[in-house]
Amino acid sequence: MQTFIALLRGINVGKANRLPMADLRALLLDQGYDKVVTLLNSGNAVFRASKGSPAEHASAIASAISSELGLDVPVIVKSAQELSTVIQDNPLDTHAADHSQLLVAFVQNASTLQGLRAIEQLAAPTEPIAFGEHAAYLHCANGILESKAAKALVGKMGQAATTRNWATVLKLQALANKGS
After folding, report:
1. In the prediction, which pLDDT does 80 show?
2. Which residue in 84, 172, 171 sits closest to 133, CA to CA?
3. Nearest-10 Cα torsion for 177, 41, 8, 62
4. What CA–CA distance (Å, rounded) separates 172 from 46?
5. Count of Cβ atoms closer than 10 Å to residue 111 Cβ
6. Is 35 exposed, middle or buried (0-12, 13-18, 19+ CB in 10 A)?
7. In whole angstroms, what is the distance from residue 52 CA to residue 1 CA?
8. How are strands ordered across the β-sheet holding 135-139?
9. pLDDT, tens digit, for every residue of 80-113?
10. What CA–CA distance (Å, rounded) separates 106 from 112?
11. Does pTM surpass 0.85?
12. Angstrom distance (rounded) from CA 90 to CA 133
């Protein structure tokens, strides 16, 4: 069995796309996933599966959410190893004393990162942005709400990505390591 992390985009933000985490856990268990654990209320789940690629799981979960819950939300799935690589590859970790100010943008396919490069021009001089093999990293030193680059990343320019702050990424890794 391999451990995976599902990251849903745009869940439980405002009044749109409401999805209780108990419903997400039940849906994943019904899909045959094992040891399902959710984190926070923003569409994070760690689960185990005996076969399948992250992309296959992402497609299956998105399809199940659409057909069974009536929500069309992008789903990105990473293996526990891919998540570890995202964490190891982060060149900005030391810049972020406040982990809530460091965003990680996850994409399903690495080629999608190229489309996020346009966000670089929106980053303020105090906002380092970096691109790794599996994710993009943005440190919003003045806060996420004040950052034009962060707004673009979570908005239309970043539609193919979903973001998590560094604290959440580390919590997901801890859950994934527990399930391994």
Report:
1. 96
2. 84
3. 100
4. 7
5. 9
6. middle
7. 10
8. 129-131, 135-139, 102-107, 161-165
9. 999 999 999 998 866 557 888 899 999 998 888 8
10. 10
11. yes
12. 10
pLDDT at 156 over 60: yes
Long-range contacts of 11-16 (CB under 8 A, 24+ apart): 11/42, 11/43, 11/73, 12/41, 12/42, 12/43, 13/42
* Amino acid occupying residue 15: K
Q: Poorest-confidence range of 28-32, 73-77, 92-96?
A: 92-96
Quote the CA–CA distance of 146 and 129 in Å, as a whole number. Answer: 15
Which stretches does DSSP call E strand in the chain? 2-8, 34-39, 44-49, 75-79, 102-107, 129-131, 135-139, 161-165
The domains found in the chain, sorted by start residue, are 2-80 (3.30.70.1280), 83-168 (3.30.70)
Measured at the CA of 73, the angle between CA 159 and CA 123, to 5 degrees, comes to 25
Residue with tokens 């994409």: 107
In the structure encoding, which two tokens stand for residue 48, read together? 């185990």
Is residue 134 helix, strand or coil?
coil
| Amino acid in position 12 | N
- Model pLDDT, residue 105: 94
Strand partners, 105: 136, 163
